[in-house]
Amino acid sequence: xxxxxxxxxxDVEHGTAxxxxxxxxxxxxxxxxxxxxxxxxxxxxxxxxxxxSYKVKKLDAxxxxxxxxxxxxxxxxxxxxxxxxIYAPRSVDRGLVRDxxxxxxxxxxxxxFQWLDYAPVNPTKTLGALTDWGCTISLFHTKYSExxxxxxSLVTVIGHAGSTILIPGDNEPPSWKLLLDQSAFVxxxxxTNLFVTSHHGRESGYHADLFTHFKPQLxxxxxxxxxxxxxxxxxTYQALGAPVFNKGMNRTETRKTVTTRSDHCIVIKCYxxxxxxxxxxxxxxxxxxx
Length: 290
Known about the structure:
Elements: E1 2-9, E2 18-21, E3 27-30, E4 35-37, E5 42-44, H1 46-53, E6 61-63, H2 69-72, E7 86-87, H3 94-99, H4 106-118, E8 136-140, E9 155-160, E10 163-167, H5 173-180, H6 183-189, E11 194-196, E12 218-221, H7 232-238, E13 242-246, E14 251-255, E15 257-259, H8 260-263, E16 266-275, E17 280-289
Parallel strand pairs: 3-6, 6-7, 10-11, 11-12, 12-15, 13-17
Antiparallel strand pairs: 1-2, 1-16, 2-3, 4-5, 8-9, 9-10, 13-14, 16-17
């Protein structure tokens, strides 16, 4: 593989945690979910795993889509791999953030505020404006101003080797509608072929109008059996399908949706490969489940 982008969607049950390894070796993390696996009485921390198993000392950037507890659960391990920049919906009133979180998550919320104060970043600056990533990474947000914290979620769009990966937070129709009013956003998502679904694949995050702008090959759900409703069938209907390699079973099958609930860790690679017959590089992507 040449010029490879890797996106890892960790299995963190009811939460979201995504690692982006760029072609130039930079690391971006999107959200800080953790997995609490009751059968083993262990909690999986992606940040601790990166630090302990891969000897990562720092992150180049961190995106917090929005500060609900399941997106900042790993915040107390962030000091293990401190980010060079933090992108988050900083304009949200802190009282609203506190009100939208459970009492048990109060300490996480306050630590989140501490990190924002420690690593200030212009909230309108996009990752695409940074250099040496080896791919395009852009952030989008809306001027939503009501009380549902989900609708303040930042959306990340990554482009590389002919693929476009769309990664939202917990956006619901009110914020999707505002995003689709932005011509820059519509332009950025028009070639989306890999879509990480909003709000863990719940019905509340589904917005049919999105699919008038792109037709994904695969939809990915970071979800758990505890989610009461799911739009998996809707996303399956919208997707075209693509090969997915199951490492445990050592076989490839055509899929339309892939879920952490059933498939656990998901690894996406977008890359170029030399085509000797055509005498040129061709753009490819692969998906592996562990």
